[in-house]
Amino acid sequence: MEDKEIIKTKNLTKLYGNVTVVNHVSFGIQEGEIFGFLGPNGAGKTTTLLMLLGLCEPTYGTAKVMGFDPIKEPTEVKKVVGYLPENVGFYQDLTPVETLEFIGEMNSIPQKELKERIDQLLFLVGLSKDRGKKVGAFSRGMKQRLGIAEVLLKEPKILFLDEPTLGLDPEGSRELIQFIKELNQSKNLTVLISSHNLSQVQEISHRVGIMLEGKLVALGSIKELSQEKFGVGDKEYSLEEIYHRYFKGEKDERS
Amino acid sequence: MKGLSAIIKKELGDHFSSQRFVILFGMAAIISFMTTYMAAINLKEALEGASKPGFVFLMLFSTPGAIFSLLQFVAFFGPLIGIVLGFDSINRERVQGTLIKLLSQPIHRDSVINGKFLASMITVGIMLLSILLVVSGFGLFILGVVPGIEEIVRLALFFVLSLFYIGFWLALSTLFSVVFKSITTSALASFVLWIFLSFFLPLLGDVLAKAGTSQDTNKLTELELVIKQTKIKETIELGSVMALFSKSGSLLIDPTRKTVSSIVVMGPVEKFLSSRFKNPLSLDQSLLVIYPYALTIVALTILCFGISYTVFILQEVRT
């Protein structure tokens, strides 16, 4: 199993001044896995993602993404990782086609192939008929779908999705989750998804990690975690119950 | 390199389709057109019947039209062009959440700031060049004088100098857009610095010159006092890039000018020479006089961009 670990971190730590934002985080993610990244706001999930992308330098500890060190070879990492940030922004005056063309050019995709991929992706995310509109006129859900098209354009091996369903209506968010699941199955994409929507994470994740105040307090499949917290039993606990246990446990420990 | 060209292309497209470019270009075109028209009319009247001096063509750029010459126009409004194109280059991306998207693409981080700066410089270059060409063509039409080789070379050098001068303000406003997260703050900082350096520094020079010589009023003669005051004033004014540009620009455009210092502070020999020999300076001699000033402008531009480059590379980007 060791050689199939596509992402690996060891004691990843980030300090801002005296505040420890990410505290000795070590985990590995298998190829083709959907990994749910959970935790309250400010737990250090985004910072961890940024460190994996090489956008933010760890104070200490190491990370490897497909064998590349994000600090030394950030461009190599960015070639294989598609990152959809939380609250992704767009150039308001461009059409979706222009937006994707710009992203494609930065990824050195040849013109002819780029045109085909853009057509396919716009169809895939359901924006084909809005291709001439300006992004400024898009709804939140349309923007989010365009964001997905953007990260898929470079045909990545790994997706980092930071709160992709935030602010979407229930139907839109369900569709998006379903879409991610399909991508994972059809293209063997490794997906690291951070979300507050626990039932959705439970639905698609093979394994989850829970972060609390910079520390990775739980790591494993939902079954493993439920056994760890509730003991061996026949009853399957939902992720919501498990999450709550961890959250409460941490609080009790401190008080 | 792929990333750099992609960003330059996108930024150029943005500039040329933006309203601010249209406004800026329109304003610059109208003012320069008016200025040269007035200058050309004045020149034509003055030259009526007289034997034509050399470098008539360049006079188009150095003769005041209604209020100011084209040179003064570039000195005053050039900074505005630079600031308007640069004050929000980085922090707008940050505010609209696109900077992190750019940086998570497989391009080098410096491509972003280099691409933006280069695209703005190309825009300024196109703007300036088209204005110079239109003015030249217009002058050609009214005056009927064909520029000589030296005049063309001098104009070309003036173009390069202006490019660096505007480039300085562009680099400065880019620096503010890297340092300040808010677009309003960076705009404000750029404009405040522009107004201070261009308008208040000369006033400050005046005040300080008077204050600095207040003890000497009894010891020095009237003339010595004026010389000392002018020296202090000019030294202080050198802190303004605008003064550096006006001084070096006017020598480039006007070959009959021989020195950057005003007549008051000239030594006796210098005064004698300039009144005795009316011949224009040759190009290499003009260059020799302005070279420290021109070099300072270039150095300041590079320094300013270098600082913004470094700050941007070291900055942590989260949005």
Q: Can you walk through the features of this model?
A:
The complex is a heterodimer of chains A (255) and B (319). Chain A is α/β, with parallel strands linked by helices and 255 residues long. Chain A is built from 9 helices and 9 strands. In chain A, the strands form 2 sheets. Chain A has a 6-stranded mixed beta sheet with strand order 5-6-7-3-8-9, sandwiched between helices. A 3-stranded antiparallel beta sheet of chain A has the order 2-1-4, covered by helices on one side. In chain A, strand 6 (158-162), helix 6 and strand 7 form a beta-alpha-beta unit. In chain A, helix 3 (96-106) runs parallel beside helix 5 and helix 4 packs antiparallel against helix 5 (140-153). Chain A is globular. Chain B is built from 13 helices and no strands. Chain B has helices spanning 2-17, 19-47, 56-62, 70-86, 91-95, 99-103, 109-143, 149-179, 183-212, 222-237, 241-253, 268-276, 283-314. Helices cover 77% and strands 0% of the residues of chain B. Chain B is globular. Chain A binds chain B through residues 46, 50, 53, 55-57, 75-76, 78-79, 81, 83, 85, 87-93, 102-103, 105-108, 150, 154, and chain B through 2-3, 5-7, 9-10, 14, 17, 96-98, 100-108, 316-319.
Strand content of chain A: 15-25%
Largest sheet of chain B: none
Which stretches of chain A are low in confidence, meaning pLDDT under 50 for 5 or more residues running?
A: none
How do the SSEs of chain B run, as a string of H and E?
HHHHHHHHHHHHH
Largest interface: A-B, 28 and 25 residues
Could you tell me the number of beta strands of chain A?
9
Shape of chain A: globular
Task: Categorize the overall geometry of chain B.
Answer: globular
Computed CA radius of gyration of chain B, to the nearest angstrom = 22 Å
Round the mean pLDDT of chain B to the nearest integer and report it.
Answer: 86
- Number of contiguous helices of chain B: 13
Order of helices and strands of chain A: EEEHEHEHHHEHEHEEHH
